Amino acid sequence: MRGVNAALGAAGLAGFLALGEAVPRLGLVEEDYFPPTSRIADALGTEITDPAFWTALGDTLTGWALGLAIAVGAGIVIGVVLSVVPYLREATASTIEFLRPIPSVALIPLAVLLYGTELRSVLLLVVYASFWQVLIQVLYGVRDVDPVAEETARSYGLGTWARIRHVLWPTALPYVMTGVRLAAAVALILAITAELVIGAPGLGARIAVAQTSQAVPEMYALIVVAGLLGLLINVGARSVERRALAWHQSVRGEVTV
Amino acid sequence: MRGPLLRLVFVLGLPVVLVAVWWAASAGSKDVYWPPLRTIVETFPDVWTGERWRGDVLPSVLRLAAGYALAAVAGVALGTLVGSRRRVRAVCEPVLEFLRAVPPPVLVPVIMLFAGIGDTMKIVVIATGCVWPVLLNTVEGVRAVDPVMAETARSYGITGAARLRRVVLPSASPQIFAGLRQALSIGIILMVISEMFAASNGLGFTIVQFQRSFAIPGMWTGILLLGLLGFVLSVLFQLVERRVLGWYHGLRDASRRS
Amino acid sequence: MLDVRGLKKVYEGSGRRIEAVRDLTFTVGAGELVCLVGPSGCGKTTLLKCVGGLLAPTAGEVSLSGRKVDGPPPGMAFVFQEYGRSLFPWMRVGDNVELPLRQKDLSRARRRELVGDALASVGLADAAGAYPWQLSGGMQQRVAIARALAYEPEVLLMDEPFAAVDAQTRADLEDLVRRLWRERGITILFVTHDIDEAVYLGERVIVLSASPTVVREQLRVDLPAERDQVHTRVAPRFAELRTRVYEQIQAAKRGAATPAKADMPPSG
């Protein structure tokens, strides 16, 4: 069954690539706008021999990883503090509900003014966008803590720290992992956005340069790289999530929040 | 039971404190980038006049609505098609996973090639960026229809369109809404940056204009307005979701209690 | 009425071949209440799904009123064990009961009437506006039964419908099934692993062997039509029948434990 599915998937991918080759060749769309697969592959081949490409990839990954790390760290710490300190969760609920949906791209002009094309511009956008993903999942996870377990822990005189460590954290972990997975995808989107719009060095900036210099196949090649990067991050995050939770009775689906 | 007064304090307390702190800390600020909140608030009605609402805010919102609606319809329709055929799903899955993983903002330069810089470009950008989460979540939701429910439907002769409308789509709706929720935030991002890239009107365009001409308080009002727009859209989304998925939240609460 | 002849079902997948049902032949007369009982894992559900047209048999055939079953026939209704997953949680109770009727060519008023009548006869007349998950397990199964009744089937197939409810509720639901059967004259094929339940409910009990399933014995239950939980269950005849079925099932289990002689498919 698995083998059959993999074969079908490979066939689908091959068909997709062949379609990408055939459609411009047959003149269904203009080749200048949509180069055939082989020309994109050529351009990709040239790209990966260019050291500047690897620098750009490194820049993007730095912004992504650093931003994600800050967002995850802050999201977990703040989430736990909000849930553990009495009344803090209720007092902050409305503020979180207001701040969370603010699109982080609204901060672009501010980032430009404050930091120009520095890495900090990227970080501002990445952290703002991915922080909420983690925080919300942590809050949901903590809310899921079994009150009986919590009371048992209390009745045995476990302190706050021990309760966090042994009751709250294990329950919240699956949610945290979901939050990290979602945040990882969002962080990449915002890193590329910042580079594309602000011009901070990275893949996004390279795409913008390719666009303005009419280097269309190169632009597509870079987009393919961005897609592969996204795919790698998604698949990686999912497998980390699954491995980390293999012991857990329920690997949860996404929470609609 | 808590009194409504105390609840009000909880809801409004922190926001009021935060605004007050901002107000006080920024009062008399000489830093060009951080103008006093008072100045920003005073600038707001001057900047966002009726004309601006009509000329910039409305076009932005309309483009977002058009692109988002297109993505929702296409995503659910294609997702249902792909999700209900096992073979089709196996063939499409790797390609769809790749397309979803492409960070949507890179679509802007590509679609500009085809569609120029007009409204069409922006709507197409928003639609192509939003469609993937909706599509993939629909596929997942349609695939995961409970086998007992599917057999129940079959044994009572519920097939075809009735099955789709009354069994498959409702059963997938929690997943579909999770996708729509993700798509909404992507849509707002794309609305803004497609206007920052190339436009002659719209919220994103206006904010960048302010920033480039160093009209800092004006830029701040734009940031606030954009934040407000995000908030309002999210509230609207929640209202719709509560209505459509009322049964789902009830079911979840019921199974949590037991 | 319902004719099952030479029914055989073999599952084939990923190199393994599992013979769930070997060779089953039995009939259910019009208006009869027949219980199928067998050791757990003996392919009862497979059998019932073949009868209901939800699974295609490997060999043999099922016919309803002389017509071959090759898909869910309109004259049959199914009540599943998993009531929580068989009712649609996004529909209110009334809509759940009404849904199958929408497929039939009925006027709105007639549909309403059928729904109201069905809910009333399971004692849930005022629950039409509730969601299924707001009801207890026993009430949910009542809704599933009401849905089947409203469909006005000739044959009602019930697959261990009371296996997941508590004992008290179960007794009530058993009496409900007896009452509905007597009032409405429907033909019922009731699958269970519970011997007491089979004897208490059925007019006839068909004892199945362990998988691969064949009919081991058929017993006529000559208890009075008027049955109740207190007296019927202590009647000497009830005990005799029960013992008889029990022995048969024990024998069936032992049969499964001894090394199979002809169970393996011929090699080569």
Give the oligomeric state.
heterotrimer
Number of helices of chain A: 10
CATH third-tier fold name of the domain at 50-208 in chain B = MetI-like fold
Structural class of chain A, by secondary structure, is: mainly alpha
CATH architecture descriptor text of chain A: Orthogonal Bundle
Average pLDDT confidence of chain B is 90
User: What fraction strand of chain A?
Assistant: under 5%
Rg of chain B, Å, rounded = 23 Å
CATH uppermost class of chain A: Mainly Alpha
Uncertain ranges of chain A: 249-257
CATH class of the domain at 50-208 in chain B: Mainly Alpha
What is the CATH homology-level superfamily of chain A? Answer: MetI-like
Helix coverage percent of chain B = over 70%
Form type of chain A: elongated
SSE layout and pairing:
The complex is a heterotrimer of chains A (257), B (258) and C (268).
Chain A: H1 2-25, H2 37-47, H3 51-84, H4 88-99, H5 108-115, H6 119-143, H7 147-155, H8 160-198, H9 203-212, H10 216-244
Helix pairs in contact in A: 2-10, 3-6, 3-8, 3-9, 5-6, 6-8, 8-9, 8-10, 9-10
Chain B: H1 4-26, H2 37-47, H3 50-83, H4 86-101, H5 107-115, H6 119-143, H7 147-155, H8 160-197, H9 203-212, H10 216-244, H11 246-257
Chain C: E1 2-13, E2 16-28, E3 33-37, H1 44-51, E4 59-64, E5 67-68, E6 76-79, H2 83-86, H3 93-102, H4 108-121, H5 137-150, E7 155-159, H6 167-184, E8 187-192, H7 195-201, E9 204-208, E10 213-220, H8 236-257
Parallel strand pairs in C: 2-10, 3-8, 3-9, 6-7, 7-8
Antiparallel strand pairs in C: 1-2, 1-4, 4-5, 9-10
Helix pairs in contact in C: 3-4, 3-5, 4-5, 7-8
